[in-house]
């Protein structure tokens, strides 16, 4: 298994519910290391750019409005199979379909406001990490 990096976002609903620490605990308990992190109030342009792949979807405007409704916590997670592992920790997109014990099942109530984002493939992870942290924004964890 390969060491990967993935982009994770604690979305505005979960930040507002004061769940950053509980969500970080789940990443760390699963062996994922936080190698970059920042709290950001996204602009509409930043959110639109991040979700550009969904531009034609009917929920695009609502998604962008939600993502700028309050600050988000953005982090890069590193570890073995980090992309898939983070997706498992988050659970299905729709919290009602997410397995018990996942972030979305435990902390979210609707597909519109589903607590967390995680990259879905190596290619998107690389693009998303650079989108928010550039080429040099990662702290190597050598200890
Ligand atoms: P993912 O976040 O689980 O990867 P995607 O299909 O990439 O799911 O969708 C991105 C985000 O768009 C979701 O996390 C969710 O917030 C929102 N979304 C997806 N499908 C719907 C929908 O049918 N209605 C409203 N929002 C949706």
From TrEMBL:
Biological role stated in the UniProt entry: Major role in the synthesis of nucleoside triphosphates other than ATP. The ATP gamma phosphate is transferred to the NDP beta phosphate via a ping-pong mechanism, using a phosphorylated active-site intermediate.
Domain Nucleoside diphosphate kinase-like as annotated: residue spans: 3-140
GO biological process: CTP biosynthetic process; GTP biosynthetic process; UTP biosynthetic process
PROSITE patterns: NDPK, NDPK_LIKE
Record text on subunit structure and interactions: Homotetramer.
GO molecular function: ATP binding; metal ion binding; nucleoside diphosphate kinase activity
Keywords: ATP-binding, Cytoplasm, Kinase, Magnesium, Metal-binding, Nucleotide metabolism, Nucleotide-binding, Phosphoprotein, Transferase
Source species: Plasticicumulans acidivorans
Official protein name in the record: Nucleoside diphosphate kinase
Cofactor: Mg(2+)
Enzyme class: transferase
Superkingdom of the organism of origin: Bacteria
Active site location: 117
Record-listed E.C. numbers: 2.7.4.6
SUPFAM superfamilies in the cross-refs: Nucleoside diphosphate kinase, NDK
Primary site of residence: cytoplasm
Pfam families: NDK
């Amino acid at each position: 298994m390969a060491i990967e990096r993935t982009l994770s976002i604690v979305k505005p609903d979960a930040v507002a519910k004061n769940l950053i620490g509980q969500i970080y605990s789940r990443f760390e308990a699963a062996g994922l290391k936080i190698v970059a992190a920042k709290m950001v109030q996204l602009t509409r342009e930043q959110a639109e750019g991040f979700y550009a792949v969904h531009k034609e979807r009917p929920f695009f405007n609502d998604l962008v409005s939600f993502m700028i409704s309050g600050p988000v916590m953005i982090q890069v997670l590193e570890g073995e199979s980090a992309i898939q592992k983070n997706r498992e920790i988050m659970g299905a997109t729709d919290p009602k379909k997410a397995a018990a014990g996942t972030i979305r099942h435990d902390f979210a109530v609707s597909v519109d406001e589903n607590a967390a984002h995680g990259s879905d493939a190596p290619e998107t992870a690389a693009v998303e990490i650079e989108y928010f942290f550039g080429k040099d924004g990662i702290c190597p964890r050598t200890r």
